[in-house]
Structures are given as C-alpha cells and as structure tokens.
Design goal:
Low-confidence stretches: 1-23
Number of helices: 10
Largest sheet: none
Number of strands: 0
Structural class: mainly alpha
Shape: elongated
Mean pLDDT: 78
Helix content: over 70%
Order of helices and strands: HHHHHHHHHH
Radius of gyration: 36 Å
Oligomer: single chain
Strand content: under 5%
Length: about 180
Amino acid sequence: MLKKVWTCGLALIFAGTLSACSGTNSAAKEADYDTTKKMVVDILQTDEGKKAVTELVADEKMKKHLVMDSDTVKNAINNAMSSEQSKKVWEQLFEDPQFVANYAKSMDKPMKQMMKDLMKDPDFQKRMLELLQNPEMNKEMLQVMKSQKFRSHLKETVQETLESPLFQEKIQKKFT
C-alpha cells in the first residue's frame, strides 16, 4: 500500500512539475512572439525592409499570388481620379493628341462590343424600335434637325471631328 501511495505521490509531483513547466513555457513563447513581432515590424520600417517588400511585390511570380481587395482598388482609383492634382494631370494628358488617340483606341473595342451586345438584346431592340417608330419622336427629331441650334451643334461636331487626333491620324494614313 505504501508503494501505491508513493507511486501516486510521485505521479502528482511529476504532473505538477510538468504543468508548472508548461505554464512557464507558454509565457516564454508569448514573450518570444512579442519580441519577434517587434523585430519584424522594426525591420520592415527600415529602408532595407521597405526595399525588400517593394521587390517582393514587384516580383512577377508574387503578383500572380496577390489578390487585391476590389473595394480597396475601387477606393484608391476614386481617390486618385477625384483629387485636384489628378484632375490637372488628366487635363494635361488629354491635351496630348497622341495620348488621346491611344486612349480612344483602347476604348474603341469595349465600346463597340457593348453596342453589339445591346443590338443583340431583344429587349433593347424592341425599345429602340418603339422609340424610333413613335410619331411624336419623329416629329421631335425633325423639328430638332431643322433648328438653328442643331445646325450650330452639327457644325461644332464636324469641326471637333476634323480636329480629333484619331481623325487626323486616319487622314494622315490615307494621304501618306
């Protein structure tokens, strides 16, 4: 019986020692984690750390694995597009005929595709036919086309078309 009590006592002492060690070990792990976390944050804030992160993000393989939050991207674009500084940049860019031509070319296919898709849509076709066949609409269109305001607008439109970088580029290609 003494042997059993002795064995139980040793087992309790051993279990107590293990639990005490594991508690100390857990606290040590927590301290190590905090220390490591602080070191990593400090490293990332250095010029070398920033350079390393920049290189990592610029890496083509890494770009394939990065998934950007669409809301974050949307907000960034909205902020970039709506600031006063960006408005000035866009105004300057659109003064450059080559930029305007490239921009218009890049938008040409999506706009044509959208119109083709709409033309295939039965609901859109139905509404367009209803609109064009409406006698009141015909009367309004005829009245508008005869007006001095429309003629003035048509003249401006033709003038803008002639001054358009895309149109000028096409004309230059035709005559060269």
